[in-house]
Design goal:
A 3-stranded mixed β-sheet has the order 1-2-3. It has one domain (5-151). The protein contains 5 helices and 3 strands; from the N terminus they run ββααβααα. With 169 residues, it is mainly alpha-helical. The protein has helices spanning 38-47, 52-64, 91-101, 111-138, 140-152; strands spanning 15-19, 32-36, 79-82. Helix 2 (52-64) crosses helix 5. The radius of gyration is 20 Å and the shape is globular.
Length: 169
């Protein structure tokens, strides 16, 4: 059963509107793919100890998102995608939904509709990737500043097994 087209167009939602249909015997087969939000991705990247190039990669991934779970990272939890900051423009989410719907069993025999969907979606995806690349290059000074500030801050290593200060057993 196909999910409604417009349910996939909310950039703040964890719901993707995309159903796993090529997952084989994995537990996610037939379930809706859940997304990480932009805020969760930013917090994860900031809390990670990334070098400069990994920071650039994380910035690009935050901007573009991960719309398709090609490696089935969400095979057990169905949480395989991420929304990108550019998804607030809605057009990338339209492209994502057009491409994913072309794999549905109901649309396998409608070749013309699938060709039209891909004809609209591929240029939108190319614009999304190019915009994310350009914005990542523009954000290089900000990324460098964040790395300088994080390098100056004292490292706070949290050991969850260590007792609290002043507490002895």
């Amino acid at each position: 059963m196909a999910l409604p087209f417009f349910s996939a167009l909310d950039p703040t939602s964890k719901k993707s509107g995309i159903t796993y249909c090529l997952a084989g015997n994995r537990p996610c087969q037939g379930k809706e793919m859940l997304d990480f939000t932009v805020g969760e991705c930013i917090a994860d990247a900031f809390n990670s100890d990334l070098d400069f190039l990994s920071g650039l990669n994380a910035t690009y991934n935050i901007l573009v998102g991960r719309h398709y779970d090609l490696y089935l990272k969400g095979a057990l939890t169905s949480k395989g995608g991420t929304k990108g900051a550019l998804d607030y423009l809605i057009l990338p989410l339209v492209a994502r939904k057009l491409i994913s719907d072309s794999y549905l069993s109901e649309r396998r025999n409608s070749r013309l509709a699938n060709v039209l969907a891909w004809t609209v979606a591929v240029p939108l995806e190319l614009v999304r990737f190019a915009a994310a690349f350009a914005l990542t290059l523009l954000l290089v000074p900000v990324i460098a500043l964040v790395h300088i500030v994080k390098a100056r801050l004292p490292k706070q290593e949290l050991d969850t097994n260590a007792p609290a200060p002043g507490f002895t057993m």
